[in-house]
Amino acid sequence: MRLSTFAKSRNAARGPTPTARFQTEIIADVPVPERAEDVRFFSRRIVRPGKVRRFSNQDLRETLLAAFYLMVAASVPVRWWAPICDRMSRLRLKRHMRKQFPGYAAATRAVLGGGIDARKLFEALLVARHRRRLQLAAHIAGFRWSPIVRLEGQEGLQAALRRGHGAIIWCDQFTSQTIFGKRALHEAGIEAHQVSVNSHGVSESRFGLRFLNPPMVKVENRYLKSRIVFERDDAYQVTIRIQKILKRNGVVLMTNTIHAGSTFTEVAIGEGGWTHLASAPANFAARGKAALFAMSTFETLPFREYRAVISPELLPAEAETGRDGAKDMVLQARYILLKRDRLLEALKQFPEQMLIWSSSRRLTDAPDDAMTTDDAGS
């Protein structure tokens, strides 16, 4: 059932802009009786394509930061890296507090409760973003740095692969997932294919696509068997390619970003918050025989130790009899709720490393209340 259109994206409401405009619609509210919860499905279609900018102020900042962190990675002892990131995170603190902190505080308190120190978490997130930049620079520099990278939960993944139908790993957007999630799988002998948009990285300008994003993609590709890059118009071909990989018993990584595809979901999380989850991983799992797992990657000791955690298989009881290739939104909703449960567990462990916090209110009530980042995280 398609309901009425409720809102355009934030970009659509701001007048002339180089950014694409989208129309967002509610597809359906799908109840899951045994959980006494609903999952809301949305569609998101482009209304007017955006113009790609040649250069932006963000490009200048990211270029300077990239050069600075390359110098740090090449010449400064590892024990000083964390203090340097802490100091760098304070350079634009007042601006971040004014523009981003109010929405961030509302969202984190809605999920984790009013007793948390939202400002402390926010400042820690700013530091983690700088450590993320230095992680990339250290991989590019390519010497003197050998952190411990642990992978947990691979036994369940290997058991699923022995069934011969492939596996989807649904990755959360923690700051260390982009590189270390893939690295942990690679070092464990798991060859994975990453689903990614062509603008993956730190910038969507022409300059960013040409100069800023390729280094990150090149580092990530060291740890991947292949990268499945798509545009919005390529959805059908990408679907076919993913299905072929799964039929060959391959492993496909999908990052939880709602902006790449044409549909996404909204579900309650924590004490009173709402989160938005991609629908594609649940759709593939519900319509095929591939196993579905959640994955979160944490920096447990800055620049020293990283921990990638693969969840037990996300498997609703109905999946054993209900996966017949047909579109089953109720089964998808059950997968979504299982993923939400794993996300909440991860958030409680390392909330300061989560790049994306959705909202303290429903999207239909507060479309501008989201805490976003510049990186799609794939």
Task: Explain how this protein is built.
It is a single chain. This protein has 378 residues and is of the alpha/beta class. The protein has a 7-stranded mixed sheet with strand order 4-12-11-5-8-6-7, with helices on both faces. A 5-stranded antiparallel sheet has the order 1-2-3-9-10. A hairpin with a 4-residue loop joins strand 2 and strand 3. The N terminus and C terminus are likely disordered. 41% of the residues are buried. The protein has one domain. It is globular and about 55 Å long. Helix content is 40%, strand content 22%.
Topology:
Elements: E1 5-8, E2 21-32, E3 37-48, H1 57-75, H2 81-88, H3 93-99, H4 101-112, H5 118-141, E4 148-152, H6 154-161, E5 167-171, H7 177-187, E6 192-197, H8 206-221, E7 226-230, H9 235-247, E8 251-255, E9 263-269, E10 273-278, H10 280-287, E11 291-301, E12 305-310, H11 319-322, H12 329-349
Parallel strand pairs: 4-12, 5-8, 5-11, 6-7, 6-8
Antiparallel strand pairs: 1-2, 2-3, 3-9, 9-10, 11-12
Helix pairs in contact: 1-5, 2-5, 10-12
The arrangement of helices and strands along the chain is EEEHHHHHEHEHEHEHEEEHEEHH
Task: Give the tally of structural domains.
Answer: 1
Strand order of the largest sheet: 4-12-11-5-8-6-7
Poorly predicted parts:
1-17, 367-376
Sheet-strand content, in percent, reads: 15-25%
Query: Helix count, per DSSP?
Result: 12
Q: Quote the distance from N terminus to C terminus.
A: 31 Å
Number of strands: 12
Rg value = 20 Å
